[in-house]
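Researcher: Watch the backbone:
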Amino acid sequence: MLKNLKRKLYFLFVSSIMFVFTIVFFLLARENIEAMQDAELSALNRQATILVLLFENTANYVETLEICEEKYDYSFRLFTEQNELLYESSNIADTANTIDAFLKELKHSEIICKSGNDNSEHSSQTGIIAFHIEKGNAYHGVLCSIYTDTGYVNLVIVKEKIGLPAFLPVITHYFLIWLIVLITVLFVSTRIIRQAIKPAEKTMQSQKNFIAAVSHELKTPLAVILSATDTIEASPDCNTDIRNHASLIEAEISRMTRLIQDLLLLSSIDAGNWMSHKTEINVDTLLVSLYDKFVNICNQKSIDLQIKMPEECFPALISDEDRLNQIISILLDNAISYSPEHSVILLDAAIRKNCLAISIVDHGIGISDEDKKHIFDRFYRCDKSRTKKGHYGLGLSVANELISLLAGKIYLDDTPGGGCTFTVVVPWSAAE
């Protein structure tokens, strides 16, 4: 129980911290990437302005544009108002189609660049337009209309958008920081939760030691009381009334003995001292012996105990026979205790996906959905009034602990028509 609490606290602490840090790192990375994109646009806009100012005072277009191509990886097309081509870059594949796609996008965006048609003598440039070529990359482009001594010339500048490779250093940087934070959080949270749980572990260990010690100490006086009861019953002066009281004492001592045995077993499991003794089990023999063990008890209570097995013999199972016998006995005893007279209890066994599945099907009072959540908790009883004697609410928790140590599981389902079906699943490879 404490281990489950520790796991839940650990998961909650780590997941919440990492969720916050992940969001923060995501926002920082996005802000950094957006800043790189803004810087790219600013550089393009600034370069366009510089070229406009430069070309207003010089006619040495080709040399200037070739330098920009090599240094900044821009592509250009320079043409007159009469669409006479003066220069076009060749540093990207299919430059002409790329620039044509930009001009087409520019028309659709309804951005008008000033030209000589408005009788002005000033250069101008459009805003930066984002576009992409068909089945190709994305680009940014700008159109400049430059006033020169010989009239207006138009300059198209395009540059491919920053791709993922350019962002990889930023992403890698933040991922490494996130990874370092994760490792730090895992380490720190382990220490914090361990220190936080330590007092509870100490208290629980003290309780376990106390229960184990008391259980051991109770065994001797119970044995003495039982011996004294046998002596009283054997006395020739023992009348019927005394004999009845002695029988009652024996029954209660038997119940207390079973309780002590369960407590000692759970204490041993909690302390990690429980050892399994796995041997080759004849499943058919085990089931028949369990049937023979409980059929007389069922007959005394007018309950019909039935057994169902496949016609072919089961293969040998490697597991702890005593503990498996104990688990199924607990479930059968539980079914008998809560089944009415003239009802049927079925002991069913089958092979399911490399597992042995043993089901105990009863048609008793059943278990509510609310009680199902706690049915394997220690000292939990569905019978809140405690009218059922012989059960302390430890049987199912003992069975659940034992089956976990055998690498198996217990499943609880409703029986059609009323009642409960407990299914014990044990892997054939339990010994491996």
